[in-house]
Structures are given as C-alpha cells and as structure tokens.
C-alpha cells in the first residue's frame, strides 16, 4: 500500500514542479498556487512536503467519503423500495432525452438531489461532525497528554462487502 502512496506523492510532486516552472503560477490563481506561494516564503513554517501530504490527504479523503456516501444512498434506497422506484423513474425520464448523464445534469435531477441530501442528513461524513475541539475529555485526562503522533495507515474496506437486503413489512 505504501508503494501506491509513494506513486501518488510522485504524481503530485511532478504537478507541483510543473506549476513552479510556470511563470503565471505566481499569481495565485488556484489553491495549489496559493500553497506554493506560501512555501516559497522564507519565513514560512509550511514546507513543500507538508503541502504534498495535505493534497494526498484531500485526494484520499475525497475518494473515501464519496464512496461511503454512495454506499449509504444505495442502502437507504434498498430499504425504501418506493423511493428507489421514484429515483429510477426520474433518472430514466431524464436519460430518455439524452444518451449520457453529465455533471451539469445533476442539478436537474431534483429527486436524486433530495435523496442524497437526506442521506447526508442521516449519515453525515466525518468532517461535518468534527466542527470544534473538545477541551474536556471523558476520562479526565488532559488533551496535552495525548499522543497525537501520526503513523502511516489506511482504513481498508471489507473483503466481502455488507449486503443491504430490504425487508418487506
């Protein structure tokens, strides 16, 4: 697994290097330019290594939260067959007018949007839940005594994914 992360870091590093070679990247036109500008500053505490790992974390977290959201949407739809039917009907009606679905089409699928929003309400992703730090810990220990050292790791998916089987009542 570390080899994959090394490969991703190499890809990000080559993108960073390419961006640094471009003169117009000094203008700070996107997030990457802004971070690279910060790393160029002599008094900056943020290194290129830090930015590389930040972008890797954002990339991996984005993949994982998207996959988890899709799993929850499917699980909720399987538990609610009438909602699944309504969602499928909306998609079929929309796709009967077009051959392929594009990103810009998502805003036109009102029921699908409502399903996703309701799923996120019922099963929010972790970043939404963590909105402030907790100063008092349950076991009366102090936050300064906690070891927050990072260690390489990844959460793996199950070899056999759970199956959601709707129950008819």
How far from one another are the termini? Answer: 44 Å
Helix residue percentage: 55-70%
The global form is extended
Low-confidence blocks of residues:
none
Largest sheet geometry: none
Q: Count up the helices.
A: 6
Report Rg. Answer: 22 Å
Number of strands: 0
Give the topology string: H per helix, E per strand: HHHHHH
Average pLDDT? 79
Helix vs. strand class: mainly alpha
Measured by DSSP, the beta-strand proportion falls in under 5%
Structure description:
The protein is an all-alpha fold and 169 residues long. Among the domains are: 1-63, no CATH class; 80-124, no CATH class. The chain has 6 helices and no strands. The longest helix is centred in the middle third of the chain and has 32 residues, at 48-79. The protein is extended, with a radius of gyration of 22 Å.
SSE order and pairing:
Blueprint (H helix, E strand, L loop, with lengths): L1 H20 L9 H10 L7 H32 L1 H17 L12 H13 L3 H4 L40
Helix pairs in contact: 1-3, 3-5
Write a concise synopsis of the structure shown:
The chain is an all-alpha fold and 169 residues long. The chain has helices at residues 2-21, 31-40, 48-79, 81-97, 110-122, 126-129. InterPro entries: Cyt_P450, Cyt_P450_E_grp-I, Cyt_P450_sf.
Summary tags:
169 residues; 0% strand; Cyt_P450_sf; single chain; mainly alpha
